[in-house]
Structure formats: structure tokens, C-alpha cells
Structures
1.
Amino acid sequence: MAKKKKQDGGGLVAENRQSRRNYEVVDTLEAGIALVGTEVKSLRLGRANISESYARDEQGELVLVNATIPIYPPASRFNHEPLRMRKLLLKKKELAKLMQGITRDGMTIVPLKLYFNERGIAKLLLGLAKGRKNHDKRDVEKKRDWDKQKARLMRAKG
């Protein structure tokens, strides 16, 4: 009998719920993150916050700003800085596509989800997005509520 490999990865760590409300996400892209050991251990505990974070260009590289990964208590003095900028790992074509969206179209790069993939590697789902005004947010909420109500009525009719 072959032993099954322990499934270590595969889990949502943090989600930016307000991003879909505040931005109209045009395109999504998966990116890796350059992390240190204690950051990975803290993420495995499910502790992170990406709600106020965004990605920006720093000398030709994409970095994640304002993402909070709390310190890992057992590491004591060998800990990381919770709010440091983290380099995002992308292919050149993907990076060029994102930079084109930012410069030409005036879009923003917002993180949507932080998770571990099937191989146990920390990944960040990025969204290329346009900002919404308050009246746009209200219109989207009205449309979503109407769609829910319409589906409920159709289900009731059978």
C-alpha cells in the first residue's frame, strides 16, 4: 500500500472583502510573495490582514504595501517586521500587463485573497481594478439585491 502524502497547504489565510465593493475588478492574476520563515509560520496559523493593502511599482518590481502579518511569538528575537513591504513574484509579461493597466488606464492593483496553493506555497490573488464612486457602489448593491430577489421568486414559482 502506498502512503498518502500529508496535505499541508491549500487554505485561505486572508481575504479582502471590501475590495469587490470598492473596486470594479477587471482582471485577476496569481502572484507569489517573497516571505521570511517566521512570516510563513504566522500565515500557517491563519493570521494576516490584507484589507488596507495595495500593490505598487518600486524600481521595476511590484511590492505589496500595508499588508499586516503579525509576529510569530515562538520566534522571539528572530521575528520579522509586521508591516514591511513584500516583493511580489511575477513573470515579466504579467508585470508588464499590470504596469500598462496602472499607467495608461489609471487602475489600481488590489490584493483579493492570500492563500496556500495545493503545493503549500503562499500565493496572492491580485486584481487589476478601477475605483468606484459612492453612487456606483449603491447601484451595484441594488442590482445584486434585485438579482437575489428575482432568483428567489423564480425558485418559488418552480
2.
Amino acid sequence: MEDKHSYKVSLKWDEGRKGIMEAPGLEQKITVVTPPEFDNGIAGFWSPEHLYTASVLSCFMTTFLAIAEYSKLEFQDFDCTADGIMEKVEKRFQMTEVNLKATLKISDPDKKDKAERILEKSEAACLISNSIKTKVNLESTIVS
């Protein structure tokens, strides 16, 4: 793997507080709006705040999948939710926390400690979490 990568994304204003985002080589376009908590915001579409939270969540999952595979951790299911917290800090809004709640189903209860270590290592190794100043918290549940 090379040491440097580029991910190009474009956004074209559509109307009001709405734009259409796309990236070369990707079929899906995403409608992005100002969230309804702000003036003239629109409900029912992805906002930058959703995308920010989703980037932390999806990076955590893909990092977990890679580390679990490398560590030969067999699991039956992985599910995770994320709650991105936006607050006003010193008169400016910012994403102050992302709370991850992961549930991992394993067949071998003797691998519970290993699974917990891999989840923690995944959160620590997530490149998005390591690139932001937002505090990322992980709560995990392992079931067998």
C-alpha cells in the first residue's frame, strides 16, 4: 500500500440549503442538506453532521474487520451505532463527541477477552478517529 492516497468528492448546489455530492467511480450520489436544527434546515436527508458521525462509525467497522481478519477472530455478527454530539463551545458549534456502541457476536465464549482487545485496538487504530479532535468513546458488548 502506498503512503499517500487521494479521495476526490464534488458537491453541486441544488436549491435552498441542499446540494448533491458525488465522487468519481461511485454510482451513488448523496443529497446533503443543512440539518433541521439550523435555520432553513431540511429534515429527511444526510447532513454534514450525519456524514461526520458516519465516517467515524464506518472507519471503526472497517478497521475492526481488518484487525479481526488479521487476528483470526471468528465472529458471527457485528453491529454498531454511533451518536455524534454537537455542542456550542466558545460561541461556535462543533462535534464534541462520537459515542460508539458495538455489539459483537462470537461462537466461542473463551475468545471474549481477545474480542474485546480487538474492538479496543480497532477504535485506537481508526484513521478517522486519529485525524479529528472529537472525543470518540467506545462501549462494547460481546455475546456468544
3.
Amino acid sequence: MNSEALVNGAALVNDDRARYDRAAIALGAGSLVSSIFVLGADAPTPIDFAHVGLGGAIVLAALGLVGILGGALHRGSLILVAGGGLTIAALVQLATLPLSPRPLGGDASMMALLGAFGIGLLAVGLARRSAASTPPGTTSILDRKADP
């Protein structure tokens, strides 16, 4: 394999990781912005899209910020931490739905928000890790097209 192929392969891997980093920034920003739904109940016209409690808003904002930082700083581990934290928060919300005062507040719509952003960030973080572990100049088995 010549050096030009290695350089081109390394550029492709870096380009793939940059795409995953941009996706992590977008998902983290979505999570951060979703925390404003905590104000929905007190708005002059109630926002009925999602019912987010104060605890859930803090989790969405904090872990959304971690996801943004992970993408901006090119740190896959931060992306995975944000995704894992949001997914765990969704599971906590699911487990506490029958309780009257829920620790995170909100309802099942908040569980859906937490789960969606968490699973999305986990998927991006794991795909980024897979792209980083693929040697330059090769393609992942998942990216190869089957021969007809």
C-alpha cells in the first residue's frame, strides 16, 4: 500500500469522525434546547408537546452540554457518557412513572425525549468509535456492499 492511499484513508476516517462529531453536537443541542419545555406548564399558552419536570430539565441541559462538548472537542468518550446518562435517566423515568412525585418530574413524554437523545448519542458515539478503529485505507465490514 502506498503512502498516498494511507493519507487518503486517514482523511476518510477523520472525515467520518467529523460527521459523527457534528451529529453529536446536533443531538446535544437538541437535548439542551428541549430543557426549555420545563417552562411549558407556566406559559400563557401551555406547551403540550412534552411535559418536562425540573429534574428532567437539568438532566437534559447538563448531558446535552456534555454531548456538545464531546463533539466539539472530538472526544468520543464524552459522547458516550452523555448518551449513557440520558438513557439511564429515561429508564429511571420509566421505572418511576407509577409514582406520584417522580424524581425527575414530567411524564412519559419526557421519558421519550430522554431516551431518544440518549440512544441517538450512544449510536453516534459507538459508530464514531467503530470509524476510529478502522485502519486507514480500508472499509469497515458494515460499510462494504454485498456482491450481487
